[in-house]
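Case study.
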Amino acid sequence: MQLSDKLKKQSIGWLLISSLIIILLLIPNINILLNLFTDTSENWQHIKKYLLMDYIKNSLILIISTGLLTALIGTLLAWLIAAYEFPGRAFLSWALLLPLAIPPYIGAYTYAGLFSYTGPFQVLLRKRFGLVVNQQYFDFMTMRGAIFIYTIFLFPYVYLLAKSFLAKQSASLVEISCLLGKSATSIFFKVILPVSRGIIVAGASLVMLEVLNDYGVVKYFGIPTFSTAIFKTWFGMGDLTSAVRLAAIAMGVIFILLYLEKLLRGGRQYSYSTSQIRPLKRKKLTGGSKYFATMFSFSIFGLGFIIPVGQLLYWSYLSDGSKWGNLLEYSTGSILTGLLAATLVIIAAIIVANTVRINSGILSNLFARITMLGYSIPGAVIAVGILVFLLQVDQFISWLMQPFAIEINMFLTTSLVMLFFAYLIRFLGIGFNAVNSGYQKIGTKFFEASRTLGKSVTATFFKVDLPMIKPAVLSGFLLVFIEVMKELPLTLILRPFNFNTLATRAFEYAADEMIYRAADLSLILIFCCTIAILLVNQLRKGREDASEN
Amino acid sequence: MKINNLSFKYEKNGDQILNNFQLEVNKQETICFVGPSGSGKSTVLRLIAGLEVPLSGEIFIAGRTVVNDQVFIPPEKRKVGMVFQDYALFPHLNVAENISFGLGKISKIDKSRKVNEMLDLINLNGFANRYPHQLSGGQQQRIALARTLAPNPRLLLLDEPFSNLDESLRDEIRKELKNIIKQIGITTILVSHDQADADFMADRKIFIYS
Amino acid sequence: MKKLLVMIMLGVMVGSFTGGILAAGEVNLYTNRHYDADQKIYEQFTAKTGIKVNVLKGDSDELIERLAREGESSKADLLITADAGRLHRAMVRGLLQSVNSDILTKNVPVNLRDQDNKWFGLTMRGRVIVYAKDRVNPEELSSYQSLTDAKWQDKILVRSSSNIYNQSLLASLISIYGEEWAKNWAAGIVKNMARRPKGNDRAQATAVAAGIGDIAIMNTYYLGKMLNSDNPAEVEVAESVGIYFPSQAEAGTHINISGIGLSKYSPNKANAIKLMEYLSSAEAQSSFANANYEYPVNPEVEPSPLLKSWGEFKTQQINLTELGIYNEQAVRIFNKVGWQ
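After joint prediction, the assembly is written out as follows.
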């Protein structure tokens, strides 16, 4: 089909706006990626000789272990929650998302603090029982510790995606397997895992990217990884080019892993022959398995939320308290930024996702992939690309305004606009994935029915698509909101004067080795995210009830 | 309705589905495409509705060109009604809202009059406030038909209208559907893989093979 | 509810746009120091002069990168970093300009500022040895070099080499003793490490108390912070260790500074110099230094009682510019000897 023919089929406005968004997203990235094509420097040789192997090894161990563990735990919990009825299920269903509210580096500080020599655990043993334990067994700052931290605070990515997928899509498969006399365990391993593999991989790849780009945990634990290397090269050697090269290798590693997975899957894409989507009927667990399900889910929730929050509460009690005025300022700053950024990202994500859905071609495939670009590159590196790009735009604006004697100097780069632009680039992929999964769930038939009933693409979008993908939009909004609330590198580098958020202040205290003072801020941050999760959960439940009755 | 030299290729796998397809349908005539699955009979419906863009060829509806080398009228402007194989009733709208969906900007009173008129036609009075998932398959199909007919299309397309129904209901529903079509006197094209459906419903049968 | 939300959002939008236009009578500061006490000192300055201080906090490297990218159009007037090497790097990249101020040259000793007065130290700290009082006799300790003795095998605790304070320490040793010496020293420390480098400076002192090793290398102010910690267990740890200023018989203890520089394209130059002078003044120095348990640079100002109780010590007499000059070499040496 010719391009002009293609354009006949859909509304051109959507394509234009989407292309604009994609181009805006590409420019800062390209600015950075161009560094790859310059000659290698002497620094690069040095890095290759002394550091690279170690970094690759450590990063691979971290990424693969965390990826596998989050996939396993996330899917298992999703399956328990979606398919079974047991005490506490309703609460756990949303509570298991809460670990996402705790930034991994705060989690790392709390766990290391909990078990350290001066932490409550050892102090209790020493003071009460006169026991001095072998420090070796209480050392949390190890590779295993880091894997634990990442797993326990990031598994909800997999859980969230897998849960809604299983609840909505697996009913007939499970029923048939039951009729064929399969046991619960074999249904999980033989049916559930393979069928939801695509969605698990999607969740796990988010986790892996997050682990790859995280700097806080590995820095504190002293584990040299790619992100350590990137910062060491960039700042220690002042060599951005080599840093970008490292980032590119890291991305390459992720893509190779994902490609290998696809190969293993044999390129199979499971899709459903039936268009009738029935919710899965939950089975009541009895006896021992009932308590096992409750215990297991609760212990994960305890590790991922109750224990770190408890430790933070204890620290907050130890510290002499923060000023309420400041806390209020940081909270409003964080929340408003989060809401506004999430709205912006989701609107853009919806536009791109809608365009991608209507145009099934190479172009839209490309669009879908490009949205993830901002999430794949380390935040600090991408921040430089954004700064350079917006500086150019700023200079262009003041040049444009010159003839009118209007002086607009550095309007973008000294305001919050830059930060919002950065959030858009970084988190569009997250929003897009959520919205797109909503679109995939409803397919194209409702869209087509609406078109034949005389509604244009845009009218159809507002009357049919949007109401139907609302749950997906909401969870996308929620994810982006939480991400923005926790976001650090971009906010630190690109924020305007006198702008503080909960995350930046907490980070500053932690960096000054005053973790106790960070406790109040972290608790508020976690509280806000919890409220957001609760709210979305309520909205969603309300909708489900309405459509069921 | 007239189709000239219609050709179509799927973008994804590049299979040529149609090659120089010709067809003319008279006013108030009911015709049926019969053929095995994958033969492209549904594709013809989608091309007529404007949901696919042909490689080449022309389609005229009621004397107006809806697609040729230069023109492409988008589906929402073709005044072609289509009942989908699995009905595609909007799950977030109730029956009345589904039926009035395509009515455009008219007053509330006119709207509810039209909805009641349609419910009368399909014999489902009293179902206005139900949601699609509360209806049986046969009821869903009739609502889908009412929704399609409400904006007074010039052409009715039915994609495998009986494939999702119980064998026991089939005779009854075929009869009902035929009655409604004749009552309104609308030009209709339907697609089926079942010869018996075609014999019963159609004035004329067209066989399509891959 | 929805309307309210939209209103708030619009408010933020407008706020964020207008926030981009800064009025006169201000000074814009990029700083790597995040202490709450700093904010109070800026407020005092505003009360005194009527000049508003706008603050952008961040990691020093990232702030320098931002300043460099902004170039001529930067709004930043001043840059404060917690390390002389970083200020030197900013200077080398052409981001700072000289300041001719008698007040500053009088208040800041000559080895704690740049030769061309492109940056000035404001507070000072030493990188010292901390030892377990119950296991180590301070007479066994002497210089940085003596830490590589075989008797300290598996006894030394120190954080990762990606930390700037370790980089600056090694840079000072390169400057004084040369690269080869410094490389052997670093290799010797790695050999004597009690464990893989991990955690921050506080964690090293804690590890000494916990018996993982006997001596730790750390900055003076972290000990001050621990002695004043919110956590009683941490105060106990700090009390169980002693502080030792190494190399007193030789080149002196390694010191570093928090310092300030005037940005090359500073739009509010006069205001900026006023703030620099104020921060070096007797009035601001004690609170600015005490905010972080550091030594004031102004010789007229006494350090806090705690710091005084540690006694006076001989400092390395190199110009701190050297820390910047040898930073890259230091990083390479760390990589070569496998100091993680």
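Observations recorded in class. The CA atoms of residues 38 and 288 of chain C lie 6 Å apart. The two ends of chain C are 54 Å apart (CA to CA). We will return to this complex in the next lecture.
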